[in-house]
Amino acid sequence: MTEITLATNTEDYKIIEDLANIIWREHYTAIIGKPQVDYMLDKFQSVEAIEGQISEGYEYYLLSNEDINVGYISINKEDDSLFLSKIYVVGEFRGRDIGKTALIFVEDKAKAYNLNTIRLTVNINNLNSIKAYEKLGFKKVGPIVIDIGNGFIMDDFEMVKEL
Ranges for the N-acetyltransferase domain (predicted)? Predict the structure, then answer.
């Protein structure tokens, strides 16, 4: 059974940082290359980055399965939608409905905030994730290209789910 718990302290953030290192290296290296993975882990997935995002209103949650930490999500309440900033599950635990359970949790959060949409961004070459999001009711609304510094860009699709 999947458990979802709010990350509230540096110990939790360190667990997330460690999970990010595993997940990103196994999944994203083939999509964006090792140099960009290294850069993004440091810039967006480190303990310091997580603390900064939380100070800006982001919420982080740990995903566990049978007391094993297997992933994490991050959300941010915006004016008109709930932004699903991060949803990651360790490879060996994919296909066990952990991501689906996390998405139901995110939908419940959006409803609790009286929001009617969830939005996310996904790399345009992350085809399996795009298919999974579409299966769960998300629709592509357009491309987003963002310069994230150090010569790297995020080349994503924005996807939205109406609740």
Answer: 4-163
